[in-house]
Structure formats: structure tokens, C-alpha cells
Amino acid sequence: MQTLFLNDADLLKTLGLDAVAPIQRAERVIKRSRWNDLVTAERRLCLYFRPSRTARNRIVTNELLQVDCHVPAKQDYLAYRAIARVEKLLYNQEINNRIYEFEGQLGELPTMADFVCVGARFSFYAVK
Questions:
Q1: Whether pLDDT at 128 is above 80
Q2: What are the angstrom distances between the C-alpha of 21 and each of 16, 103, 113?
Q3: Which of residues 71 and 41 earns the better pLDDT score?
Q4: Residue whose C-alpha is closest to residue 2's, from 62, 65, 50
Q5: Of 52, 68, 71, nearest to 60 (Cα)?
């Protein structure tokens, strides 16, 4: 999943990562919720799983992936643009034999002072 985001030119440009080394990209598109160490002009995309939900069948679970974008407050429009791009990349896509559905925008979420965070959730079904 992280590779999908790291290889998308539009998303990288929105995050300001199009002209940086791959290691720096990987440090800004991370697989966990970590935002308490943001630096002044840093833009970060966090993707991580939320608690599963039960489904009608006991052997199937509804899994949730949350994607958050943290940007400096003066660049709040970039967070919305990045999440919109993430939605286009994931919506109805089959990745690792799982079809991702858009669950909705989360609006503004907690982040560091002078930053803005916007998030969205995606779901898929998995067999236990």
C-alpha cells in the first residue's frame, strides 16, 4: 500500500516529495499514526489500521484503513488535495486481493500546533 502512494507522481508533488530522495519520501509516507515530531514545513501522510468491525459472518471481518495528511496550517488546501488523490488511488481498487471502499472523510483531526490534519477511511473485508 505504501508503495502505491510512493509511486504516484501527483501525490508526491502535492506532498512536496517529487524532487527528494526515495529515503526521504519513505520518511514522510509512513505506516503508522505519528505526528508529534513534525518539523516546521513538513508534510506527512500516515496510513494505519483502525479496530476491525464484525460482519454478518463470524469468519469475515470488516477492516478499516485510515489515511491522514498533516501539513502546515497555511497550506491546508494541500491536505485536502492529498486526501482527494488518495481516494482516487484506493477507491474500488483491488490491492492484495482486497477491494477498498471509501468510508468517508474524517474532516480535521488532531495534530501539532500550526499544522492541519485531514483524514479519510477506507474499508475492506478479510477472512480470519
A1: no
A2: 12, 33, 27
A3: 71
A4: 65
A5: 52
